[in-house]
Amino acid sequence: MPDPKRTIAELKELRALTADENGAQRVAWTDTWLKARDWFTTKIADLPVEDHKDAAGNRWITLRGDSEKALILGSHLDSVPNGGWLDGCLGVMSALEVLRGFAEKYNGKPPVTIRLVDWADEEGARFGRSLLGSSAFAGTATIEADRGRTDKDGIRLEDALRRCGVEIDRFPDAQKEQDNAAAYLELHIEQGPVLESMGLPLGVVLGTKGVERHAIAFTGQEAHSGSTPMRSRRDALAAAARLALELRPIAARYPDAVCTMGSVKTYPGIVTAVVGRCETTLDQRDLDVDALAELYRLAREASERFALQERCTVEWSKIWSIEPVPFNLELVDLCEAAILETTGYVHRLPSGPLHDAAEVQRCGIPSVMMFVQSLKGISHNKIEDSKEEHLELAVEALDRLAAKTVDWILSQ
Q: What are 69-120's pLDDT values in tens digits?
């Protein structure tokens, strides 16, 4: 049986080692991140496992089983700057506790191979490329676009990786780790308020939402704020503001959709001038690909309507997009059953944030995630927290899910 209290104690130990008064500082490819990985080495020293890093810097801990078919459990030790004490590392340390249980129960030889992975640079906090290690594993790495990325100090991604013993041109070799992978499980904090609002400790994740991200520019006419009558204005900000408010009823058409205008820049940007140009960004997310396309269509039509009404023009340009990734339905059912056995209550919900599990599912390996409630829905912040009793339930439920998944693998 797993010892959830040990997992919580180890998470607190990691926090003490790699956080300061502002929060966690385990940014990937930094000395603090390497320190966290060295600390993790001490936690597996007495286990009958193999330990290696793949070509993208992902770390693999392997407990060989009677079958080469592998159940993978994982998450990431890296954090954002000034991050929380649970984001990512909860999944790694709970996976370690489950692996310990398999090693003890089966005297070091479980029915299938159990693998723990600590993905490299899930956050993308330093160089702006999220899911770096898991995308290399999945074969979706964008090497040429990424190698020249720089951090705030001008250090190139390629050079930072090399300092840690990783060559970006060897990323495709990480795909070898897919061999014999039969299923992937990941426990993570929700990072949102849904489970807390429902009074539930745990939830089943249906998949990660797709994202459509665009830059939208409204162009009107700069004019003097004192001498230009209201009826004569071509105010680009007015058109943008109307779109910002219209995003709410657009998103409300779908239960889990979100639309966010996260950035607004005005020109000339002075108090005495009507705005002649307004540049905004729009982020839209949903788990359903058709719903995501409809969200985009409605927002674009609305922008054109408001531009016309304000006697402005509007231009759209794509920033980035990623398709929705639904998780394996059989594993979703197994996850629900594990949570029900642990808590008696369960809820299914999509994930708005991206996760490594989506990259694993994307390359055809059946995957599912479990969420544990986040207090106040806060993450990527030093006040990120979850109740310890909920964390204990999460470790227990993950252990149950792993056992069910092993049986599922053997039945295939």
A: 999 999 999 999 999 999 999 999 999 999 999 999 999 999 999 999 999 9
| Averaged pLDDT score across all residues of the chain | 98
Handedness of CA 59, 65, 68, 72 (dihedral sign): negative
Residues contacting 101, CB < 8 A, separation 6+: 1, 2, 399
d(CA 51, CA 71): 16
What burial class does residue 154 get, using C-beta atoms within 10 Å of its C-beta: 0-12 exposed, 13-18 middle, 19+ buried?
A: exposed
Q: What is the pLDDT of residues 220-239, one digit of tens each?
A: 999 999 999 999 999 999 99
* Dihedral angle sign, alpha carbons of residues 168, 170, 175, 179: negative
Q: Average pLDDT in the 334-363 region?
A: 97
Half-sphere exposure of 75 (CA within 13 A, CB side): 25
Contact of 105 with 54, CB cutoff 8 Å: no
Query: How far is CA 36 from each of CA 167, 184, 225, rounded to the nearest angstrom?
Result: 21, 23, 56
Question: In degrees rounded to 5, what are phi and psi of residue 193?
Answer: -100, 5
Report how far residue 387's alpha carbon sits from residue 85's, in angstroms, rounded to the nearest whole number. 12
Retrieve residue 39's tokens.
């600390």
